[in-house]
Design brief:
Helix content is about 30%, strand content about 20%. It is of the alpha/beta class. It has a single domain, classed as Rossmann fold. It has a 7-stranded mixed β-sheet with strand order 3-2-1-4-5-11-10, sandwiched between helices. A 4-stranded mixed β-sheet has the order 6-9-8-7. A hairpin with a 5-residue loop joins strand 7 and strand 8. The radius of gyration is 21 Å and the shape is globular. The structure holds S-adenosylmethionine.
Length: about 280
């Protein structure tokens, strides 16, 4: 009879052999048809030209599912009122429709009219508690019309203390530092006390032992040290800048920061601390 140690030793070889034979499943259409969230079959897949650079349908689902998992770990609940900053074509909203209670409020806003139109046409009629708003704002790469209002001074069109959970997925990776500071300040305003902020980033740190997202390596550092950019509008931030901007918004980061992987960005979870003063 083989001793436990012998099994372990043999097992490790056997496991290696088996692991090699079992391919890691990539998300595929057939995988998708076997596992569906209820609203996926109700809300159509947005057309490819509106889906952005992670454009394939399986990857579009993959990103949203992982975001849902990360937001659940951050403390998202079914009765939460949710604000989705830069909601895009409703990638996350499509899953939130099947998760949030009917009387929970969802608000999404975005600077792109075609993306917001798609959400208003395809999501709101089925889920009237999901509302989408177009806010035209200046962006040096996406909307370079100088007559548009500045995002650095934009006041979110929602009352103080009106949301339990605010998310911005893959949005701060396109915003300049002054807009970033303003948006974190606004998040601190519209969240209820102890409300949760979930945002994603490309972060870098200069200390040799510090965490840096590999994507930041391909970006040109601004001499200020606070941000790095890859044209036309992919932006990374120093961790210190992001920490300071959260503090100024009255938001306390819940450690640890979740590092990104594959095409997922670094995720920062924070809570609105009633005692913390918001400063400009
Ligand atoms: C990479 S997309 C992410 C969209 C969505 N959050 C998602 O995960 O699918 C970035 C989005 O930010 C929007 N955006 C850019 N500047 C913005 C701003 N100042 N305020 C709000 N949204 C903005 C863009 O129109 C775009 O839809």
């Amino acid at each position: 009879m083989t001793s436990p140690r012998g099994w372990l030793e043999r097992g490790s070889t056997a496991l290696r052999t088996r692991t090699r034979r079992v391919p890691v499943p990539e998300p595929s259409e057939s995988w998708r048809t076997r596992r569906q969230f209820p609203t996926e079959s109700t809300i159509p897949m947005p057309p490819e030209e509106l889906r952005g650079w992670v454009g394939s349908a399986p990857a579009f689902h993959d990103v949203a599912l992982t975001t849902m998992g990360r937001m659940n770990m951050a403390g998202l609940r079914q009765d939460h009122d949710v604000l989705d900053i830069g909601c895009g074509v409703g990638r996350t909203a499509r899953y939130l429709c099947g998760f949030l209670n009917d009387d929970a409020r969802y608000e999404g806003f975005d600077t792109s009219a075609p993306l917001v139109d798609w959400c208003q046409t395809n999501i709101t009629p089925l889920f009237p508690n999901f509302r989408f708003t177009h806010v035209p704002l200046f962006h040096p790469a996406y909307d370079p019309d100088p007559s548009l209002p500045s995002a650095a001074e934009f006041i979110f069109p929602y009352a103080d203390d009106s949301f339990d959970f605010v998310l911005a997925h893959s949005v701060f990776t396109h915003l300049w530092p002054d807009v970033t500071t303003n948006y974190l300040h606004e998040i601190g305003r519209v969240l209820r006390p102890h409300g949760i902020s979930y945002t994603t980033w490309v972060l870098f740190e200069d200390a040799p032992s510090g965490y840096s997202n590999p994507r930041a390596k391909n970006m040109d550092r601004d001499p200020s040290g606070t941000f790095a950019i890859r044209r036309p509008a992919n932006i990374g931030f120093s961790q210190q800048f992001v920490r300071n901007a959260h503090r100024a918004g009255g938001l306390e980061i819940v450690e640890p920061i979740h590092p990104g992987f594959r095409y997922f960005q670094d995720a920062v979870v924070a809570a609105k601390q009633p005692g913390m003063e918001r400063t400009r």
